[in-house]
TrEMBL record:
Pfam families: Glyco_transf_20. It comes from Natronoglomus mannanivorans. The lineage of its organism: Archaea, Methanobacteriati, Methanobacteriota, Stenosarchaea group, Halobacteria. It comes from the Archaea. This is Trehalose-6-phosphate synthase. InterPro entries: Glyco_trans_20.
């Protein structure tokens, strides 16, 4: 870790919606399980290195264990080697409905992923969003910290709310993990001006890719013609303050060496053996997709692509098995439950339609698996597929490559995932809306001649070895420490 961080004696404070671990008091003590999801995976390793505080939504009521919870209610994490504290902010049912299910996931999420037909603006959603952003601001404002790192679309108003109360005592850096949409799409939001004002109060705002940053700059220019935008430096002058913006060259994400080692561990191999025996996966090439069950991940398009492929080219039936590892997500929102249902039904339909006595085309796993199992699955698959309709980064694509170290595999990745910027041209990039092209890319990956596969694998491995959550962290911390 950078010495300058240790020299800074007031700790780093990280704000996210989701807490890094879920906790259950068992009677013998507290059982903490790390939550899934790219953001949590990355930030947990960050705070384990830097120490500090993490503030997130969660309830501390049900799981108190006096031996690990300090007097003020903070929890020390990770449980087996505590290096930072977690403060959980409890929300009531109405706040959860309006802030989380409502504004965050029915307005901002679809809007920022350009799924405008799914945007559902209800007046109470916005009120709830403002209220909860204020609630988190209250939680942070008196803490002994000078560096505040605000994550993602749940807290776009927090930087402004904080700045109003701390007048420059702390440096605030925001990182947006999802795409920032084009100005013409952002304008659809009735609260676009307030949201921009909220984010612009940060000292610095980070984005995954250059195009998301460019979208943000254009939104500012359209909304606030009097502001100044310097494209070279990324500096924005708005009212009397300056906001820096940047693209973090290193995507948030993974430690490739660790992923490679864990994917090749005895436990990952054992879990792969169990999984492959259970589903009879030993002989046929494996194509794998690992996704949260979210419409932005393009799972239904991928299944359409397979159906179209097997329909157009019966010779590719039995040529491979597609394994869909799907993780349930946001199941308390109707739209997500509908999507889960739609995916499951589609898998059944495809299996009914194409299965033979010796071949089940799709293996569908929708229970949550230990991370080692996911890594084992990546490692033993021949092809990975990411077909997001939009995706801030997509850690799965990077993990798949890192986990395959020492083996050869091919990756098909949507051109609309941020990860495509790092992985093209050695991954096969596709437009997932072009279902035939997606199916053809999967076949191209499965049947790729050995020398081409070896070349592409080598370059992909090289690109991903250069990607590291550690570097992403350093770049962010540089911004925080400026
Ligand atoms: C958001 C942005 C951006 C999946 N199933 C299981 C499991 N996973 C892990 C994967 C991977 C992570 O979840 C998913 O990461 P993604 O990046 O694909 O997706 P989001 O959750 O949508 O993340 C995204 C990210 O934030 C970071 O900025 O890349 O664009 O949408 O790590 O391996 N892990 C375990 N069991 C499972 O069943 N243990």
């Amino acid at each position: 870790m950078d010495d300058s961080v240790e020299a800074e004696n007031r700790p780093l404070l990280v704000l996210t919606n989701r807490q890094p671990y879920s906790h259950r008091y068992t009677g013998d003590g507290i059982e903490s399980t790390r939550s899934e999801g790219g953001l949590v995976t990355a930030l947990d390793s960050v705070l384990q290195t830097t120490g500090g505080e993490w503030v997130a939504w969660g309830s501390a009521a049900a799981d108190f264990d006096p031996s690990v919870v300090s007097a003020d209610g903070e929890l020390e994490l990770p449980p087996d080697d505590p290096s930072y504290t977690l403060e959980r902010v409890e929300l009531d049912r109405r706040q959860v409905d309006d802030f989380y299910r409502g504004y965050s996931n029915q307005v901002l999420w679809p809007l920022f992923h350009s799924h405008i037909d799914r945007v559902n603006v209800e007046p109470t959603f916005w009120e709830g969003y403002r209220e909860v952003n204020a609630r988190f601001t209250d939680e942070i404002v008196d803490r002994d910290t000078s560096r505040i790192w605000v994550h993602d679309y749940h807290f776009l108003l927090v930087p402004e709310m904080l700045t109003d109360r701390i007048s420059g005592q702390s440096r605030i850096v925001s990182f947006v993990h999802i795409p920032w949409p084009p100005a013409e799409i952002f304008d659809i939001c009735p609260h676009s001006e307030q949201l921009l004002e909220g984010v612009l109060a940060s000292d610095h705002v980070g984005f995954h890719t250059a195009s998301y940053r460019e979208n943000f700059l254009r939104c500012v220019e359209r909304q606030f013609p009097a502001s100044t935008v310097d494209r070279e430096s990324g500096e924005i002058g708005h009212r009397s303050s300056e906001t820096g913006t940047s693209t973090f060259v290193q995507p948030v994400g993974i430690y490739p060496d660790e992923v490679a080692a864990r994917a090749d561990s005895p436990s990952a191999s054992a879990s792969w053996r169990a999984l492959s025996n259970q589903h009879g996966l030993c002989e046929t090439p494996i194509v794998v997709g690992v996704d949260r069950l979210d419409y932005t991940k393009g799972i239904t398009k991928r299944l359409d692509a397979l159906a179209s492929l097997w329909e157009r080219h019966p010779e590719y039936r039995e040529a491979f098995v597609y394994v869909q590892k799907a993780t349930k997500s946001r199941s308390d929102i109707d739209e997500y439950r509908d999507y889960q249902h739609e995916v499951r039904e589609q898998v059944h339909r495809l299996n009914d339609r194409f299965a033979t006595d010796d071949w089940q085309p799709i293996v569908y796993i929708d229970e949550s698996l230990p991370y080692e199992d996911i890594l084992g699955l990546y490692r033993h698959a021949d092809v990975g597929v990411v077909s997001s309709t939009r995706d801030g980064m997509n850690l799965v694509a990077l993990e798949f490559v890192a986990a395959s170290r020492g083996t050869e595999s091919a990756l098909v990745v949507s051109e609309f995932a941020g990860a495509a910027e790092t992985l093209a041209p050695d991954a096969l990039t596709v437009n997932p809306f072009d279902v035939e092209a997606l199916g053809d890319a999967i076949v191209e990956a499965v049947t790729m001649p050995a020398p081409e596969k070896a070349n592409r694998t080598a370059t992909l491995q090289e690109s991903v070895a250069g990607v590291s959550a550690g570097r992403w962290l350093e770049e962010n911390l540089d911004r925080l420490l400026e």
